Automatic annotation (TrEMBL):
Pfam families: HTH_5 (PF01022). Residues 1-101 form the HTH arsR-type domain. SUPFAM superfamilies: Winged helix' DNA-binding domain (SSF46785). It comes from the Bacteria. The keyword Nucleotide-binding does not apply. The keyword Coiled coil does not apply. This is Transcriptional regulator.
Length: 101
């Protein structure tokens, strides 16, 4: 992992809403059990919007930042976008932080 990638990941975690989203995506069955589509697709962006109480555009921006940092991935199914945690990236980040601190 390059220093630029690590910096991008640290910046992505600097906002509490983005940390909340990562936490919710860790256990989607706990936080998004009412989703109509299978959680195996990921969590629908609209459900994340509802959970945060923020506007769709604001949540989209937060999701884009998390995605650019590699913490989440997206999957388009029909007209919906679904998001999931990238556990490998989360683990790599944690290991890198462990080494540097």
């Amino acid at each position: 992992m390059s220093n630029n990638e690590l910096d991008e990941m640290i910046k992505a975690l600097s906002h509490p809403i983005r940390r909340d989203i990562l936490n919710w995506l860790k256990q989607p069955d706990l936080y998004f059990a009412d989703q109509e589509h299978p959680l195996s697709f990921g969590v629908c962006a609209g459900k994340i919007d509802q959970k945060t109480g923020l506007s769709q555009s604001t949540v989209s921006n937060h999701l884009a930042i998390l995605q650019r940092a590699g913490f989440i991935s997206s999957k388009k199914v029909g007209q919906w976008n679904f998001f999931s945690r990238n556990e490998a990236a989360v683990q790599a980040f944690l290991e890198q932080m462990q080494q540097q601190l």
